[in-house]
Amino acid sequence: MKNILPTPLQYKKNKLTFDGISLERIASKHPTPFYLYSKKTLDFYYKSFYQSAIKEGIPSPLVCYAVKANSNIEVLKRLKKLGSGADVVSVGELKKALKAGIDPQKIVFSGVAKSATEILFALKCHKRGIYSFNVESIEELELINLLAKKEKRIARISFRLNPQVNVKTHKHISTGNKTHKFGLLKSDILEALAVPSFWSNTTLVGLSMHIGSQLTDLKATVVAIKELANLAHSIEIPLEFLDIGGGLGIDYTIEERNKLASITQYMQTASEALTKFYYSKTDHCPRIVFEPGRIIVGKMGVLVSRVVRTKTSEDCHFTIIDAGMNDLIRPALYDAYHEVLAVNQSKKMILTDIVGPICETSDCFGSKRKLPALKSGDLVVIDNAGAYGHTMASRYNERDIAQEVLI
Ligand code: LLP
Known about the structure:
The chain is of the alpha/beta class and 407 residues long. It folds into two domains: 9-37 and 299-406, Lyase, Ornithine Decarboxylase, Chain A, domain 1 (Beta Barrel); 39-294, TIM Barrel (Alpha-Beta Barrel). The chain contains twelve helices and 19 strands. The strands form three sheets. Strands 4, 13, 14, 15, 16, 17, 18 and 19 form an eight-stranded mixed beta sheet that branches. The chain has an eight-stranded parallel beta barrel with strand order 5-6-7-8-9-10-11-12, surrounded by four helices. It has a three-stranded antiparallel beta sheet with strand order 1-2-3. Helix 2 (39-55) runs parallel beside helix 10 and helix 5 packs across helix 6 (138-150). The longest helix is centred in the first third of the chain and has 17 residues, at 39-55. The mean pLDDT is 96. Ligand LLP binds at residues 66, 68-69, 87, 110, 173, 210, 213-214, 245-248, 291-295, 330, 334, 387-388.
């Protein structure tokens, strides 16, 4: 099924535009490399996601945007304006979400290594604390209870279930099996519920899961929802929410475009699974929390870069650009595919390796790509870089962190 996801990029008269504006013009105002984001596209994906949840009858959906995907303050402010909450995994992300004005009552705190300082900050950031600590270990539960007791507060918690499912994605971003460090097994959760000393200053308000990222099919999601629902049935406590995590993928390649589950298919599948495995068997109606990252911001952003020079080694041709793996690490880290587009189209195409300036062979954005023969100063755009681009950037080789520009 063809699933064309909107993007801000479009060629007009052989020149690339971004939200209708000439990329050459935008690039004349900013030093390369820089990230460029489209507010219009951001709005489109957030609204599509939320409205699709409503349309499919998901009860009181709460979108807790996964801040790790893109933590630009203007992006967060915009999402707050659209009604989003946040899924954070560090006190830094929590502070940024609060700075953007996101309601603490819409913030869930995930992550396997929440420290005492981070837990205390989250407990005290509002008189009611945050919406939920998504607890990933028994030790963490004990610590939250202890700190809440000291602060004379009640911490709202959910257990992150490890549903033991295998997902079809890169092994580095698969998180739902017992060999992964994430979440708790059902048996451990049920055991913890029976220990009264864990619960003097904590209250169980939900259950959560997150099985992996860049999910293109939904089979594992259905199995995981079933596991989450079974656990919810085994717990007598009435829950306020079930959090089904993030993970919905985007099309980086043409093959992905043809098989990718759309937002609508995702919501339909989730709604059907939740009804079949949970709502149809109980009178209770907890709300559904989502933690999407990539699907909200992935398509709104590109990395804009200029060619430094070209070179050949016998039959190998290299186009060396000023963006490197320190700016966008996904190709080097996950062998991820990102389309590289020349800002000026030309009929004369060559096969070239697009490489960066970093002293590593993995600093390569694409091998044997069909592109115009470019020269020093020409502009290129690396597409679909709105998610896990800038947030994963580093200063490797003492390079500056690329600027971000929001249009
Ligand atoms: N919730 C939790 C608990 C997560 O760990 C993540 C992502 C999300 C939600 C959001 O997942 P999304 O909807 O974006 O798939 N750096 C990798 C992706 C790592 C994802 C980590 N967790 C990449 O560039 O592909």
